Amino acid sequence: MSKILIIEDEKNLARFVELELKHEGDETAVYMNGRKGLDAALNEDWDAILLDLMLPDLNGLEICRRVRQVKNTPIIMMTARDSVIDRVSGLDHGADDYIVKPFAIEELLARLRALLRRVKSMDEGNKAKQTTIKYRDLVIEKENRIVRRGDDIIELTKREYELLLTLMENINVVLARDVLLSKVWGYNSDVETNVVDVYVRYIRNKIDRPGEQSYIQTVRGTGYVMRS
User: Fold this and answer.
1) Does residue 208 contact residue 215 with C-beta atoms inside 8 Å?
2) 133, 165 in Cβ contact below 8 A?
3) Do residues 51 and 77 make contact, with C-beta atoms less than 8 angstroms apart?
4) Which residues are paired to 77 by β-bridges?
5) In sequence order, which residues have a C-beta less than 8 Å from that of residue 1 and are 6 or more positions away?
6) Residues 6 or more apart from 225 whose CB is under 8 A from it?
7) Which whole-number Å values give the CA distances from 101 to 53, 64, 79, 105, in the listed order?
8) What DSSP letter does each residue of the chain carry, written as one string?
9) Is the pTM of this model over 0.90?
10) Per-residue model confidence as pLDDT tens digits over 104-127
11) 77: which of 1, 90, 137, 150 fits an S-S bond (Cβ 3.0–4.6 Å)?
12) Of all residues in the chain, what percent carry a pLDDT higher than 90?
């Protein structure tokens, strides 16, 4: 079952498409006003959006553009305007596909299924490739080079990221400053070992929570460790 948003001001067409999608087992919502449709697109999660080009208050191109600023929800644009420039404009504003009215409902459903299959395949491929490392509520996505704490993305520099990654890949292992220096900065680096202390402080400022124990523990006279 998919969750499909229909933004279409032709009442009979909107109802027809809605009934066909429900017959397929999908969950649907219909908005006939551009602004209300945009609010629904932005404030809820949808598997796909079927979007008319000409709408009251806000046209489909503007809706598409605004959705694309914050979301990657698949969008099929439905419109009676079939010139090449209209198609190009729709795709350039972020639509994934374009179908011209009047259309056969079978074609719309087939295009929608194909688009959802493609998105699912891409998502599964990305998940399969993604290696994650977890420590408490910190998660590193190695291929994406993204660090998350809960739902928040933590912005780290290249060195900060590599230092944190090294520590998280060696939970409960005390890593001496010179070891961290060689792993993160390289064996031939001319920097002093105290640069490790500086970068640990940078990382702590970004990941630690006030009043809670630091994620990175200092081992006096030796180096640092993240303990489970």
Assistant:
1) yes
2) yes
3) yes
4) 51, 98
5) 25, 26, 27
6) 167, 170, 172, 173, 174, 175, 216, 217, 219
7) 11, 18, 6, 10
8) --EEEEE-S-HHHHHHHHHHHHHTT-EEEEE-SHHHHHHHHHHS--SEEEEESS-SSS-HHHHHHHHHHH----EEEEES---HHHHHHHHHTT-SEEEESS--HHHHHHHHHHHHHHHHHHHHHHHHH--EEEETTEEEETTTTEEEETTEEEP--HHHHHHHHHHHTTTT--EEHHHHHHHHH-TT--S-THHHHHHHHHHHHHHPPTTS--SSEEETTTEEE---
9) no
10) 999 999 999 999 988 887 776 666
11) 90
12) 63
Q: How far apart are CA 114 and CA 85, in angstroms?
A: 24
* Distance, CA of 3 to CA of 23 (rounded, Å): 13
Order of strands, sheet of 132-135, starting from the edge strand that comes earlier in the sequence: 132-135, 138-141, 146-149, 152-154
* Closest to 138 (Cα-Cα) out of 164, 119, 113, 163: 164
Check residue 128 and give its pLDDT.
56
